[in-house]
Write a structure and sequence with these properties.
With about 675 residues, this protein is α+β, with helices and mostly antiparallel strands. It is globular and about 95 Å long. The relative contact order is 0.06.
Length: about 675
């Protein structure tokens, strides 16, 4: 089939436009058009190529999805070897490198091109007449693997060079990396699917690129950053390393945004410190900086040793991963009662800090990583991130290792440890009593929607706990003005006000009291439903998981948490203490929820109303309604006052009935 000239021209125009916009988006991070417009151009080209298959070219933007799986990787011989770099591990070694360079060149000062040392997989790209014809891994430096099909799926690798002036043949050298965000999402997906996770972004990048099926590689968010060149034929580059990388960038190849020419050893050391401070905020993992003599003529004069150039050095950072041994696995209890396994490690230097502990997050994570006491493990520490165990070195496992067992009783207070079905967290059920949870429990108990003890904030709770004046919520009601006045930032007036607020809080409601207890999974709405269904605290405390699930919106997980909470003698003792202290509420004497006026209805409140929103919310809950924070298709009514904004617009768009306060009164009265 002959292709009309206008179709040929349009296809070429679309390819050039898409190559240009790929460059703007993936290399410059400066897109010119919205994603929707890019997609429109791509769909138009795809349609033309579908109608005229002869239009398809290897460098078409439509050909990045990956072809058929390969049987094996072919071997590629590098025409210019991909050598490794000499390492400098500290300032003195860097200064020694600089001294050798200056002596060989006969200079007092040498300029270096400095850039981050990306921690990925080294790749060589070969372009002939501006088109990508081959991509190969570094391998042993002289021979690598042909990964052309896989590299073609990486969007920051141009299939055709942009601009003009590029040599007839050029080998471009760079690093394929996996951004940290992509690494986290890749591992998250693997965990969800029960697959194997990667230890670090470098391993993930290498594993992704070495997939025999390019279609798998195409699903991985790989990037390539270019840092140099190999063979060049039929053209010239710039006179400096920095100028050459500027050319590569102009031709559509991505380079580091942190390139800089520095002057001598002092400039190199200052750059190393600067990038080290940025290290944990970069999108990619780096393990140092690379310094190259900037003038290409000087590089040629300096030459090579057997496996490395004399004109470049990798000035490394302290390692972020090391090997050590697990001495023990202990359990910490957090302020919300969650139990976290923590590995006690044989001390090891990681990223310049002595590491003795590493979090294991939860019981499932210990099982997934198969960590035993006595194992040799890889520990990683990046910046201020808590050290983590990345994996076990199975071949070093001694015969006397000991598996981890989550305790059945809280190591702090002895209460039962519970783990709700479908939850990863194991939790201490002694919330009102457990010292580890004391501050969190007291702050929640005093909060506005709970017991509403005005003046009892977090800083005051800290003092009360640290001075051992309050151990449980019941102890709050024994505080007097003299004791409180002796605390920091508490004068006589403030102390009197707090004592008065405590006295007021004694008169509460059963839903508020239930919410104040801080039972896991029990929010305001669930507390209201429990109170309405059972009527008394005693009935709730004696309910079985089966009877608890009879309450609307209380499923097996919530029922298990409520049952476990009230089964703990410690919690019952604190509740008894609160009642002895005078905390009381009127009996709940209302019809079952299903017979209430607003049973099963969901309301959202917005705008300025004649009464506080909390007061209206309480009234709605009392009448059996649910009160949500945002409008959705499940919303039955929006109560809107003056100055209502986006929620009102969304309600109208979804067709949700909108009520003012008068209309609400009529609805309830009806």
């Amino acid at each position: 089939m002959s292709i009309p000239p206008e179709v040929l021209a349009r296809a070429e125009s679309l390819r050039q436009a898409l190559h240009h916009h790929n460059y703007r988006y993936y290399v410059l991070d400066d897109p010119e058009i919205p994603d929707a417009e890019y997609d429109r151009l791509m769909r138009e080209l795809e349609a033309l190529e579908a109608e005229y298959p002869e239009l398809v070219t290897p460098d078409s933007p439509t050909q990045r999805v990956g072809g058929e799986p390969l049987a094996a990787f072919a071997e590629v011989e590098h025409r210019v070897p991909m050598l490794s770099l000499e390492n400098a591990l500290d300032e003195s070694e860097l200064r020694a490198f600089d001294r050798r360079v200056r002596e060989r060149l006969g200079r007092e000062l040498v300029d270096y091109l400095a850039e981050p040392k990306f921690d990925g997989l080294a790749i060589s790209l070969t372009y002939e007449t501006g088109r990508l014809v081959q991509a190969a891994t570094r391998g042993d430096g002289r021979r690598g693997e042909d990964v052309t099909a896989q590299v073609r799926t990486i969007r920051s690798v141009p299939l055709r060079l942009l601009g003009e002036g590029w040599p007839a043949l050029i080998e471009v050298r760079g690093e394929v990396v996996l951004p940290r965000a992509g690494f986290e999402s890749l591992n998250a997906r693997a965990r969800e699917e029960g697959g194997k996770t990667f230890a670090n972004p470098r391993n993930a990048a290498a594993g992704s690129l070495r997939q025999l099926d390019p279609r798998v590689t195409a699903t991985r968010p790989l990037e390539m950053l270019c840092y140099g060149f190999g063979l060049v034929e039929g053209g010239r580059l710039a006179e400096t390393q920095g100028g050459t990388l500027a050319l590569l960038r102009a031709w559509g190849l991505r380079t580091s945004s942190h390139l800089r020419v520095v002057h001598g050893a002092e400039g190199a050391i200052a750059y190393h410190r600067e990038i080290g401070a940025l290290r944990d905020r970069l999108d990619y993992d780096i393990d140092g900086v690379v310094l190259k003599v900037d003038a290409l003529a000087d590089q040629e004069r300096l030459g090579f040793v057997s496996r490395a150039p004399r004109w470049a050095v990798a000035y490394k950072f302290p390692p972020q991963e090391e090997i050590t041994r697990v001495l023990d696995i202990q359990v910490q209890v957090g302020r919300t009662g969650v139990l976290t396994p923590v590995a006690r490690l044989e001390p090891v230097q990681v990223a310049g800090v002595t590491v003795t502990n590493a979090t294991l997050h939860n019981e499932d994570e210990v099982r997934r990583k198969d960590v035993h006491v006595g194992d040799s493990v890889i520990v990683r520490r990046a910046g201020d991130v808590i050290p983590q165990i990345m994996g076990v070195i199975a071949e070093r496992r001694p015969p006397d290792v000991r598996p981890f067992v989550m305790p059945s009783l809280c190591p702090v207070c002895g209460s039962e440890v519970v783990r709700a079905e479908g939850e990863v967290a194991s939790r201490c059920s002694g919330g009102l009593y457990c010292p580890a949870q004391r501050k969190e429990t007291l702050c929640h108990f005093a909060s506005r929607r709970a017991m509403d003890i005005e003046g009892l904030g977090e800083k005051l709770v800290d003092q009360l706990v640290e001075r051992d004046l309050v151990r449980t919520p019941a102890d709050l009601y024994a505080l007097d003005e003299d004791t409180l006045a002796g605390l920091e930032r508490m004068g006589g007036k403030s102390a009197a006000n707090l004592v008065e607020a405590l006295a007021r809080s004694r008169a509460t409601t059963l839903p508020r009291f239930l919410y104040a207890l801080g039972i896991p999974q029990v929010g305001e709405a669930t507390a209201q439903s429990l109170a309405q269904h059972f009527g008394t605290l005693e009935a709730i405390m004696s309910a079985t998981p089966a009877t608890l699930t009879e309450v609307p919106d209380v499923g097996p997980v919530v029922a298990a948490e409520v049952h476990a909470f009230f089964r703990q003698p410690h919690n019952r003792e604190v509740i008894d203490g609160l009642r002895v202290a005078g905390v009381a509420w009127p009996e709940v004497d209302r019809p079952p929820v299903e017979r209430q006026p607003l049973a099963g209805k969901t309301f959202v409140i917005t705008g300025t109303l004649s009464r506080p929103r909390d007061a209206i919310k309480d009234d709605l809950l009392t009448l059996g309604a649910k009160v949500a924070g945002s409008v959705s298709k499940k919303t039955d009514y929006l109560i809107a006052g003056s100055d209502a904004g986006s929620k009102l617009e969304k309600a109208r768009a979804l067709g949700v009935p909108v009520l003012d306060e008068d209309a609400l009164a009529r609805l309830v009265g009806g």
